[in-house]
Design goal:
8-stranded mixed beta sheet; alpha+beta; 330 residues; 20 strands; Metallo-beta-lactamase, Chain A; Metallo-beta-lactamase_dom
Length: 330
Amino acid sequence: MDPIHLEPVDEVAITILVDNVYDALLGGDERTRRAPFSVGAEPAPHFEEGESFVGLVAEHGFSALVTIKRLGHTSSLLFDTGLSPTGMVVNADRLGVRFDDLQAVVLSHGHFDHAGGLAGLAGRRRASTMPMLVHPEVWTRRRVVLPGSEMQPFPTVSKKALRQEGFDVVERRVPSLLLDESVLITGEVDRTTEFERGMPPSHQAWTGERWAHDAKIIDDQALVVNLRGHGLVVLTGCGHAGAVNIVRHALRLTQVDRLHALVGGLHLSGPAFEPIIPPTITALAQFAPSLVVPGHCTGWRAQHALAAALASAWVPSSSGTSLHLESTPA
């Protein structure tokens, strides 16, 4: 594929609306802002004051609001929507995030823990049509079959329901440029590493005739921004294509020679993926990123290993964390 010119941006902000963890005691710095200890109050009659503080929702899912600033103009899109119909919008309300100026929604892939919040979003935008960019295989029926356990079907995203709710669904296998060509959605990611082999045989998809091993989750795609003077900022949902494959793919597509930041799920949790933690970290370290914020399905073993190997770059994720990255002044 010919190189894609990705317009550099002056600023990018990634607000993590939903993640597996909410830690109200995490500290911030010049580029990392954390939600306050209390983001509101609710009635609680067993306290003298009649109310108690509330925090943010943490659930096994992921959602991020991406805002870019270029040539004085600011625009934003939503990347994934979390697990539950309410979690993302509850957190958005408590953080003071509004969806009024949202220009698009992107689904990283069709798993329900990234699409569950679409119902809540639709409830906030009944009066308007919202562009939604997805891979054509996002509608695939999937299930998990573990030895000695009952078959677990996954909820399947409905194209018909989304269109009825006002979403303007756009299906693309190839890369797409959004927000005045300043945000790249990778489309299908080239699989080039030897160790990132995808899901185990227990993960299956319906082919139309039978259930078959779905290793690749071919609809997996990432979001990429080119931060002027620094390099690429790569945002993943689960990173089913492999974190290293995704970074290589983004660098190759854009012909930008540096990875500045990697944010999102890296899917290194559990016995099927923990063996590839060492080669993944070795490869990521060669990119020398300035910021690594792994979340969601990364797993605690990989988090510990990343924190040790990339100590100056690693930052813990949490619902409510906002990353603010700025370009180098000319």
